[in-house]
Amino acid sequence: MSEFWAYLQLGFSHITDPGGYDHILFVIALCAIYTINQWKQVLILVTAFTIGHSLTLALATLQVINYSTDLIELLIPVTILITAVTNLFYKVPKSLFTEHPKQAPGRYVLALVFGLIHGMGFSNYLRSLLGQESGIIKPLFAFNLGLELGQIFIVIAVLVAAFFLIELMRVRRHDWNLVVSGIVVGMALSLIIGNEYLAGLF
């Protein structure tokens, strides 16, 4: 149980670590267009992301798939950038409880596909922790559970902040989305420009 708890904590701290804020930025970008009243849409979206990153996290950690670590480190901020940019073109629905029919399916697919990329990024960290341990199924499950708890923590924080500013401070929802997504775009571009893999290509 102590090993399980240790890996659960490591998963939670990894996704919520301000020092490695790329995954935090992605979750923020996913949630920026929603309010707390749309928790069902957020749940579906986060579930799609979870399915994606859980799959590749398991496959990569078990060494079923191989990939370029440097390339993945570049693609992660690219997924952040794309998600945040799509937010800038988001049309606020007339009802808080409905999603624009033309926007929802594509957004869920993006979350799933981008989750596959983030899962490979998570596995880099997990494999470095596992070392020579013979049994990795339990640590893998615990680490993934920790990631989910951390992800939920970030989602709740974003939705509560949105509720406070939009509902209580009367900030326009459109403005909230533009400011948050614009900041994420800038930070994602910074990560891409500073990426060593990209620099090596030129």
UniProtKB/TrEMBL annotation:
Transmembrane segments: 20-36, 43-65, 71-89, 109-126, 146-166, 178-199
Pfam family membership, one: HupE_UreJ_2
Domain of life, source organism: Bacteria
InterPro entries: Put_HupE_UreJ
N-terminal signal peptide: none
UniProtKB keywords: Membrane, Transmembrane, Transmembrane helix
Protein name listed in UniProt: HupE/UreJ protein
Organism: Larkinella arboricola
